[in-house]
Amino acid sequence: MRSRQTAVLALIGVLALSACSPAAPAAPPPPMHPAPGANTAGDPYFPEDGNGGYDALDYHVDVSYDPPSGRLDGDTTVSAKATQDLSRFDFDLRGLDVAGVEVDGKPAKYSREKNKLIVTPAEPLRSGSTFRTRVRYSGVPAKTPHDGGSENGWARSEDGGAYLVGEPHSASFWYPVNETPRDKATFTVTAHVPTGWTVLSNGREQGTSAKDGKTTTTWADPNPVASYLTTIAIDKFTVQRSTLPDGTPIVSGYAPGAEAREATGDRLPEVISFLESKFGKYPQSAAGGIYLDENIHFSLETQTRPTYAKWAEILTLVHENAHQWFGDSVSLNSWADICLNECFASYAQWLWGEREGQNLDDRYRAAVEITKGSTDFWGQKLVDMGPEHLFEGAYDKGILAVHALRRELGEAAFDKVLHEWVGQHRNGNATWADFEKLVSHVAGRDLSGFLTDWFHGTKLPSDADLYPGPLRP
To answer: CA torsion sign, 456 to 405 to 345 to 280?
Structure first.
């Protein structure tokens, strides 16, 4: 008993001494080696796009728009994580006049060079730290020059409304951004417009209020978005709301003159249900469409709410909503891999035709016979085709390539490839090399020769690859 008591008293003494001893000083942080972030994301097809040194986490874009003048006033906050010690960093921003920049609440120096906004914070940013950059700006974005092709940028409708579509560039026409698909981030927009006008954007409605002749609406997408898939449309829309069977909200807006396409838009639940049977559960937070009365030459798969030209019909709905899996949820890492988006969204149109009774093998053979002598058709590479040919082969040759792949794999394996692809890479980025590995893995054999023949080749595939399985005439 005594010896135990002595031990207890000794222990108390040790604890008391420990409590009185000063804590060891915290180790000083490692020295910083600040350097500018890269002014490119590194995609060779568009070397001036995107930036390095940070990972964008979230955009909160607050804009006021005046339809009569076309003026936009913006106040955007970008949350990001430094991936190196940063002395300065860049955003992509086209046109528009910047009034001020703050980093973590402190004024920052800034300058402009081409389409870059160069920001120098008051103090260097440590690698691994999260920081917030606020940019205030204004201008008439419709006056900002664009490259044409699939880049409409910010455009005005005849009644003074506005819409935005562009691939690969659109976001930098109206807010500061790391404009590369490699850096997806969540996205919120709060827009202020005169009463009587409606704002549509990505994701779910967070609320609308009216005060002093202004209507304020907020939209938010909790899923990460590639910047070219963010959007805003301002018009006197007729808005239709409903839900998918699982409660996912559907919001579609029809611009003046586009109301006749409501019958097509009403088929969206049917389209999504069909695509779910092919690709798996719908991967987005919301659904719907922005139906313009504009004769632009392409529609675009803006995330959760595709933007449709005036000529869009049911197959366009199928195509753009297939992108919600292929391109939006699973985004390309390099533009050379555009087939990951367009070949599969285009093939979804054939799958819809099969649903309606078309024999796709007959359709395939007929297309091959018609095009056999065309070097223009078969000379189109589907992977790494060069930036000048980016949107050429995927919509026609790409469909044949995917159907041939389906017949080479067989139904069960093809179905597994589609489901595993979107399941493994949901809300992320992937490469064509990743896809080829998955195909050979699921097939249980090396299909690199077949894939090279069809997707990398510039001539009619060999007879065995052209007519695999039941495709042989």
So the answer is: negative
| Sheet-wide strand order for 106-107 | 106-107, 97-103, 130-139, 71-82, 54-66, 185-194, 214-225, 204-211
Reported as a single tens digit per residue, the pLDDT across 247-267 is 999 999 999 999 999 999 999
Cβ atoms within 10 Å, residue 406: 23
- pLDDT band per the 50, 70, 90 thresholds, residue 2: very low
Note the pLDDT of residue 16: 40
Q: How many residues make up the chain in this entry?
A: 473
User: Phi and psi dihedrals of 230, rounded to 5?
Assistant: -80, 155
At 21 the pLDDT is 54
pLDDT per position as a tens digit, 359-406: 999 999 999 999 999 999 999 999 999 999 999 999 999 999 999 999
Q: 441 CB contacts (<8 Å, ≥6 apart)?
A: none
* ∠ CA 294-64-163, rounded to 5°: 15
Check: CB of residue 71 under 8 Å from CB of residue 65.
yes
Q: Is the pLDDT of residue 198 over 50?
A: yes
pLDDT range class, residue 14, cuts 50, 70, 90: very low
Question: Is 7's pLDDT higher than 50?
Answer: no
Tokens standing for residue 200: 């549509």
Please state the three-class secondary structure of the chain as a single string. CHHHHHHHHHHHHHHHHHHHCCCCCCCCCCCCCCEECCCCCCCCCCCCCCCCCEEEEEEEEEEEEECCCCEEEEEEEEEEEECCCEEEEEEECCCCEEEEEEECCEECEEEEECCEEEEECCCCECCCCEEEEEEEEEECHHHCCCCECCEEEEEECCCCCEEEEECCCCHHHCCCECCCCCCCEEEEEEEEEECCCEEEECCEEEEEEEECCEEEEEEEEEEEECHHHCCEEEECCEEEEEECCCCCEEEEEECCCCHHHHHHHCCHHHHHHHHHHHHCCCCCCCEEEEECCCCCCCCECCCCCCEECCCCCHHHHHHHHHCCCECCCEEECCHHHCHHHHHHHHHHHHHHHHHCCCCHHHHHHHHHHHHCCCHHHHCCCCCCCCHHHCCCCCCCHHHHHHHHHHHHHCHHHHHHHHHHHHHHCCCEEECHHHHHHHHHHHHCCCCHHHHHHHHHCCCCCCHHHHCCHHHCC
Cis (ω within 30 of 0) for the bond into 168?
A: yes
Please give the average per-residue pLDDT across 90-117, as a whole number: 98
pLDDT higher than threshold 90 for residue 13: no
Residue 314 φ/ψ, nearest 5 degrees: -60, -40
